[in-house]
Amino acid sequence: MTQPIIKKAVFPVGGLGTRFLPATKAVAKEMLPIVDKPLIQYAVEEAVEAGCDHMVFVTGRTKKSIEDHFDAAVELETELESRQKAGLLEIVRNIIPPHVSCSFIRQSHPLGLGHAVLCARPVVSNESFAVILPDDMVDHETGCLGQMVDVQKQTGGSVIAVDEVPDEDIAAYGVVSVDDDKSSPARVRHMVEKPCRTEAPSRLAVIGRYILQPEIFPILAKVGRDADGENQLTDAIAILARQQDVYAFRFHGTRYDCGSKLGFLKATVQYAMKHPDLADGFRKYLNEL
Ligand code: G1P
């Protein structure tokens, strides 16, 4: 069987980012930087590393900065050129490799993650595709999506990244039950979105990385809204898992929930300690503290 190749990565970036107000009043939360790169750039770099060459951003109002970030900045480049700032010029020009293209789709109503993914249907069409939630960062030599692409080549079907989380955090996630708790990848039997602690089928929480088959789209188009009026990706994947193989994969690496202030700060500290220009000075500062 020829395994599908994942070329398109969908980034649902229409959310309001209320947890970071007032910082996100006029700035997209995905543009908040971890050290010197915005969250969305880390996510795009992970997709490119995994072999994707078409980035599909599902955006909303106040997200224009994301489009600008991945576009050429002619005035800035001219200015840097005239000041002979070759290093900075290279950074600005290489935000995205030349072979990679971007599409931007507006999600006019905040109707949930499932709805955001469905908005990407006209561009993704009938291909397997990736979904990356830029809030979730995974630090590892091989990016989380790259690891998942390798798994998908072996298993086929859809693959979702999961992490074991403590009982008290389980209600913040989509949670899976699998055929075999001890193995990874393991076939998904069921999925529930944000269950209360007593109803969670396991402690395996879905983090923001998915490789999905296009059969998810007709399911998303039909799946109902939840109590908050949102169309949940989790509900659609639960149905998909009854029709074809969906695997839960325990990725390698450390995950940071950059949608929370604490997670964002932890990621900032870790990435600063690895940053070539900052590592020494920053470690010294932390030791002094
Ligand atoms: C979304 C998904 C949830 C998943 C989480 C990962 O929730 O709906 O299933 O576990 O991302 O970060 P959100 O954090 O957007 O509420």
Provide a short characterization of the protein structure:
By secondary structure, this protein is of the alpha/beta class.
How far apart the termini lie comes to: 57 Å
Tell me the total number of β-strands. 13
Strand count, sense and closure of the main sheet?
9 strands, mixed
Please state the structural category: alpha/beta
Question: What is the average per-residue confidence, as pLDDT, rounded to a whole number?
Answer: 92
Bound compounds, each kind once, are: 1-O-phosphono-alpha-D-glucopyranose
CATH superfamily membership, which one? Spore Coat Polysaccharide Biosynthesis Protein SpsA, Chain A
Radius of gyration: 19 Å
How many domains make up the coordinates?
Answer: 1
The level-1 CATH class: Alpha Beta
Order of helices and strands: EEEHEHHHEHHEEHEEEEHHEEHH
Number of DSSP helices?
11
CATH topology: Spore Coat Polysaccharide Biosynthesis Protein SpsA, Chain A
Explain this structure.
By secondary structure, the protein is of the alpha/beta class. The protein has a single domain (8-288), classed as Alpha-Beta Complex (Spore Coat Polysaccharide Biosynthesis Protein SpsA, Chain A). The chain has helices spanning 39-49, 64-69, 74-82, 86-93, 113-119, 121-124, 144-155, 216-222, 233-243, 261-274, 279-288; strands at 8-12, 33-34, 37-38, 54-59, 101-106, 129-132, 136-139, 158-164, 174-178, 186-193, 204-212, 246-250, 254-257. The strands form three sheets. The protein has a nine-stranded mixed beta sheet, sandwiched between helices. Strands 2-3 form a two-stranded antiparallel sheet. Strands 7-13 form a two-stranded antiparallel ribbon. Helix 3 runs antiparallel to helix 4 and helix 5 packs across helix 9. It is globular and about 60 Å long. It binds 1-O-phosphono-alpha-D-glucopyranose. Residues 113, 133, 136, 173-174, 193, 205-208, 233-234, 259 line the site of 1-O-phosphono-alpha-D-glucopyranose (G1P).
